[in-house]
Specification:
By secondary structure, the chain is α+β, with helices and mostly antiparallel strands. 36% of the residues lie in helices and 25% in strands.
Amino acid sequence: MIRTIALDAIKSGKGIRTDISIPVSGGERWYEITATPVYDKSIDTGAAMVTGRDITECRITGERLSDSKLQIDILLDGSPVPMFILNSEHRLIYWNKALERQSGIKAGDVLGTKSQWEIFYSEKRPTLADLLLDNSTDDLRKW
């Protein structure tokens, strides 16, 4: 399999990066294989530099994170309670279906913005989520 990847790089004249699975007892290991054609006038035939990196743990972690995100999405979107989530920069990173229904604003129209105040107020001002994110509980009375 690795030989084929190296030959493909030599024939195409372009670098190749691919992931391969190799069966081992009790499962499989995943490797990132990179093949780069090497040109040297002293060599009559083509050559390739091939490197491999074990990425099994990265793949397992990625699958777990993907499963966790899916579970969170199902939980939040399935909730009848309107909810949004802000990142540390006060940008909207989540806007659930209940909030879409209540506000009439689609998630795709506000994700990545700082427009969370618009569903509550006619003028720009911090929401409770913004105040809590900034640890500005002293400003609660002001707002």
